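FORM 7B: Structural annotation worksheet

SECTION A. Query
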Amino acid sequence: MRNKSGRCNHKKFQFSSIFSSPQRGEDETDWFLLEAVVTKGSAPSLRSAKPDNVSWKAWIIRVLAIGCLCVSVPLIARWAHSEIFYQNDEFVLNSLEYHSDGMLAEKNLAQIANVAIGANLMKIDLKAIRNRFEKLAVVKEAVITREMPDKLRIAVKERTPVAWLSCPPLGLRSGDLERSYLIDAEGILFRCLDRNDLVDSLPIIETFRMDEPKEGDTFSADGAKSALRLIALGERLQEHENMNIHSIRLRTEWSIECHYRSGLQVTFARHEVERGIENLKTILSRSNEFGAPLASVNVAARENIAVTFSQEPDPTTMRAIANPIRNQLAVPLDSKEKHLQSILKGG
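SECTION B. Predicted structure
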């Protein structure tokens, strides 16, 4: 330790020091030696002491606080949700909207839904209502939605019937609302709730061998898929008059018999319905050209298709039928003979 003298403590201000770097002067201070006795443990440690007893109580308090927060937040949220929606008079059902694309009338939908005006909109169990609708075989899908603040919308998509089921041995007849069934494109059986012109004009699928059906079952008689496929492809014949299907009979294991409203009877191979439709289109087009109405056609055969006419055709157009087709290939043919040979070859 040094003691400063007076001379060094009384410095005069000089302008030259502003423009020149300071220079270290001669050290004119005196030095004193200080002695101290330091014993172990007398001086405090400069290192911060680590808390060796971190309070376990503090950790318990923290855990309890977090637990209380986790429990209280859902409870508060549930209470707020109840107060806002369930105890709020603004969410009272005042409007019911029904929509169906099939035979179910509004009164039927209201009866199935079993929902009353004035109920709390938020307390209505939408899933339960949807399940009640979808238990009906005629219903394919039901969509139930809330529309805030006071409307409930019920939209039902029904199965579209494509045919009646008829099974004489079981007493099932087309048009019988109590016993018979309608069939959709997927083969699902369901009851007819109301008859109208569209339902009465549906084709009939008749089978003589099947188990006792139940509503909601899948039509699985022999040839059922082929019959439904034939109905689906029927639109390909719409260009010809009265070619709507009246009935389809499942008689044998290899063929199905189709009766059209024009009176034409056509036999199809069960596993080649599409080919049969294309051959029938060609035969109908050619027969119309020379004015010979058809009575029956067997398109189950790939070649030499058997054709019968509803009235006797012109004998001059039938000469090609009397002789083998192979012998006629080298002879010039008129247009009518070419048409008939095309028919006999399968189109």
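SECTION C. Observations
The longest helix spans residues 56-86. The chain has two domains: 89-158, 161-344.

SECTION D. Sign-off
Analyst initials: ____
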